[in-house]
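Model it.
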Amino acid sequence: MGKIVLVSNRLSTSVTLDADGPGFAPSMGGLATGLSSMHQQENSLWVGWTGIPADNVSAEMSQVIADRLRQEYKSVAVPLTADEIEDFYFGFCNNIIWPLFHYFPTYADYDEALWEAYRRVNEKYYHKVVEVADEDDFIWVHDYQLMLLPQMIKSALPASRIGFFLHIPFPSYEVFRLLPWREQVLDGLLGADLVGFHTYDYARHFLSAVRRILSAEHQMANVKYHNRMVKVDAFPMGIDYQKYATARELPAVQQEIANIRRELAGQRIILSVDRLDYSKGIPIRIRAYRSFLEQNPDYHGKVTMILIVAPSRTAVPHYQELKREIDELVSVTNGTLGRIGWTPISYFYRPFPFDQLTATYTQSDVLLVTPLRDGMNLIAKEYIAARTDYRGVIVLSETAGAARELGEAITINPNNEPQIAAAIREALEMTIEEQEQKNRLMHERLELYDIHYWARDFMDKLAAVGEMQASFAQRAFGKRQQERLIADYEAAGRRLIFVDYDGTLLDREHRSHKLSSESIDDMAALASDPCNEVVVISGRPKDYLQEVFHDLPVGIIAGHGIWYKGKSDTWHTTEQISNDWKQTILPILQLYCNRTPGTKVEESDYSLVWNYRRAQPELAAVRLSELKDALISLTANHDLSILERSHILELKHSNVNKGRAAAAWYEGSDWDFVLAIGDDWTDEDMFAMLSEEQYTIKVGIDISQARFFVNSTEDVRQLLGELARRSRFKTAS
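Modeled.
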């Protein structure tokens, strides 16, 4: 196993510079804390920016810092200038991606110059990564600042295992599509082998965007893209549970607890902790608290809100306006409702250090976490972990990622002020028994899936995806495999060739087209070779296939195996089958066509197809699920199979499949060479029927019974062309 290369915007080591030279200290962020044990114990490197503009440091000092980071902290510095930081970080990342991904699209500034800066800085990270990374390394890229990086790395180190984790929400397709560079961002992310999100909702939004913008299909959260399989999954980030669960015993925390009890004796405490940001919903939280006080005068003098707002992006106008609004709301609330000896809101415009914050957690009766949108929100988890007495209640926004895990919290709509006000009263009046019961459950969950488990879980999944990719690589039909196949072909006396039609001979995106004259000529050459038996095997109706191949001496299996013919024009059925079921099913399919624009029903002799290729993908997915549920009960007594393939749902008899039809040909003679090529799961019966020594080839990467896979129909045409050339040469000689 190679080393682990961690890549993030900032290094896990904070660098400062003063007259005495550079200083180094561990970063206090959740990501740095969570990955520190992995970084320290494993063979690893961390790539990121130091936090100091490169043009503020001399070349000699930059080298000193870089050398110490590499030798003492296993870190590699990416030099960013002040202009790059302004345009890349404060510009593209914080003025475009951050507001858009948090559902504030009107705040986004779609400036092409900022996009160019983002692309250039991602390239800087790319050059640093490829300097230190090898093909067998695990590379874990973090967050929205580096969304182009995975594809860049994959192009240079195709065998490396690349993971990407997004620490903020991924928005719905309707919001994400507003990004002018949406294709490039998705393409960059899909360079990773594993793409991780906090919740399944975010993963679902990403998969929807991939399908609708890049037309990349996915199944079971596996995306097929550029002849690779990319896994998409949810990994809800945890906290350092033990750090908060044991903090209460620290002397500094004990002192802070004593201070709070002295200053707020007899008060119930409602806590609000956030960084200054429009996504946090701080103004409506204050208004809801004021509404609670106005509706419940009996709580006057008995409850205090501790409002902690950490300064952030203070030079940005939106944040300046937000700060003024918060200041005014606090002033109005305290001025209109407060009295001598009681201030409704204790307001702190500064971050609290760990000891003070943890002490405040332990003494707060209610934690208000009401962001309008939040990727996870670790504050809610820290609060629970710090409450080792199992007391306290969280009022939690349903749009925070943490709401998916902390189901015992009181969840609210962050835009519903009356609901938040009512939830505050409910939280204050919850019995101790109920608090303890709920908090014990959340404690167990948070202790198990902590930050260290989260990191291991992601890396274990990346390793598993890497093994899957390695398996695909071993089965790739490359130059060596083709040379071996051709040699076996030339040495064989009796050859059987099965070739699927749609997706194999003909690209599925061009179903309405005909085969090229070149493909027809190659098929003719193969079929005319006296050593060959060539069989086209397809789900298409027999009349269609007859029209396409009527001039060629090929066998044909149509309707997934219900019809077959040899080189003559006589068609046979594999068995007598009734079509009575169609009169029941056809009206159902037609109903779903009427309800789903862009869909149609296709009928062949013994099957029905609901085709949704031209339908809006999200609506089609909903209708597809509904239709399958409806058909399962209707088909139970008809011995029918429901086949789901690329943009179609097909119904046919269960005892009809390509494998049974192909077996009749295969078992009817002794063959020295057998080749079978197909592209979807209806071909799996054919692959499974053949022995492991035969050549079975699947078009496209997927889990399959086939020995090999090729990337596209063009690869199939190239292979058949090579075989046809040898048959032509043999015939001519």
